[in-house]
């Protein structure tokens, strides 16, 4: 709050959701006699039923001078609808593909989604949001470049994927970010390939995927699924786990060389690795 405001804002965060004995006593004492010039904001991960029945929980929930607000997390399946509602509140209308692309980009992070929508407000033409608008909004971010890498890998563009990987390395993108992006695709491919090998139609495989596969990525995923067997995708996922150990210093080897090898194998080709 402003330095010249009449009231101060004091924020207290309790990640565990439990203040402990001394903390509980302090909270009850404060709720009984709150400071007139201070607004206390308490953030908890979850205040379950048992906690609400405690003396300190009742002081927070039922106190005469307190306000209890429960915010439920947005499920991954509900995220596109949440994004569409926020876009509407911002005076924007978006195609379904654009909404799904935003959802895929933010990975369930509501703050990131809200920030993306704020950027889109500045770029939208006549309030209309398309896939191209979303791509343009994030085209200058390393996160989008990482998604470009995964698209190249899924499409079997091994040489292009290697060039992108070297570009990301030159830009200072950390190995955990790149591994996260590749592992995300590997998990999806391993799960979908297993279903596909059991005779589940591809359209049903896509519709049941989590996170959802948006329409414009389905050709890429289809192409990748035809490239390797379910067993092979699972093996590549294990390779990704070994790279994670390398990044953490728990296994020998260069994470960058291993990422290059993984990208090539995912793309279905073997090329000479770039010099470290």
Automatic annotation (TrEMBL):
What is one cellular component GO term in this UniProt entry? DNA polymerase III complex
What residue stretches are annotated with the DNA polymerase III delta N-terminal domain? 1-59
A biological process (GO) of this protein is: DNA-templated DNA replication
Signal peptide positions (record): none
Q: Keywords of this protein's UniProt record, alphabetized? A: DNA replication, DNA-directed DNA polymerase, Nucleotidyltransferase, Transferase
EC primary class: transferase
Q: Which reaction does it catalyse?
A: DNA(n) + a 2'-deoxyribonucleoside 5'-triphosphate = DNA(n+1) + diphosphate
Query: Which InterPro entries did the record assign?
Result: DNA_pol3_clamp-load_cplx_C, DNA_pol3_delt_C, DNA_pol3_delta_N, DNA_polIII_delta, P-loop_NTPase
Which molecular-function annotation in GO is an example for this chain? DNA-directed DNA polymerase activity
This protein's source sits in the domain of life called Bacteria
Q: What is its EC number?
A: 2.7.7.7
User: Where in this chain does the record put each DNA polymerase III subunit delta C-terminal domain?
Assistant: 147-272
Regarding protein family, the annotation reads: Belongs to the DNA polymerase HolA subunit family.
> Which NCBIfam families does this chain map to?
holA
Q: What is this protein called?
A: DNA polymerase III subunit delta
Q: Which organism is it from?
A: Pseudomonas savastanoi pv. phaseolicola
């Amino acid at each position: 709050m402003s330095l010249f405001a009449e009231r101060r804002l004091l924020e207290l965060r309790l990640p565990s959701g439990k203040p402990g004995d001394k903390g509980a006593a302090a909270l009850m004492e404060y709720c009984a006699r709150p400071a007139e010039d201070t607004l206390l904001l308490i953030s908890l991960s979850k205040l379950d039923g048992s906690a609400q029945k405690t003396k300190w929980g009742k002081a927070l929930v039922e106190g005469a001078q307190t306000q209890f607000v429960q915010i439920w997390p947005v499920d991954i399946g509900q995220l596109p609808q949440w994004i569409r509602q926020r876009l509407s509140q911002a005076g924007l209308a978006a195609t379904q593909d654009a909404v799904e692309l935003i959802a895929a980009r933010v990975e369930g992070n509501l703050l990131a989604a809200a920030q993306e929508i704020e950027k889109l407000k500045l770029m939208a033409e006549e309030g209309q949001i398309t896939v191209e608008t979303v791509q343009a909004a994030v085209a200058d971010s390393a996160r989008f470049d990482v998604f470009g890498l995964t698209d190249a890998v899924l499409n079997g563009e091994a040489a292009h994927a290697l060039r992108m990987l070297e570009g990301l390395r030159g830009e200072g993108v950390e190995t955990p970010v790149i591994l996260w992006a590749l592992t995300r695709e590997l998990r999806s491919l391993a799960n979908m390939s297993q279903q596909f090998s059991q005779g589940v139609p591809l359209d049903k495989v896509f519709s049941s995927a989590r996170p959802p596969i948006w329409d414009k990525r389905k050709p890429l995923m289809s192409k990748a699924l035809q490239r390797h067997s379910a067993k092979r995708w699972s093996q590549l996922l294990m390779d990704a786990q070994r790279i994670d150990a390398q990044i953490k210093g728990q296994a020998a080897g260069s994470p960058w060389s291993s990422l290059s090898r993984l990208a090539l194998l995912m793309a279905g080709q073997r090329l000479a690795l770039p010099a470290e």
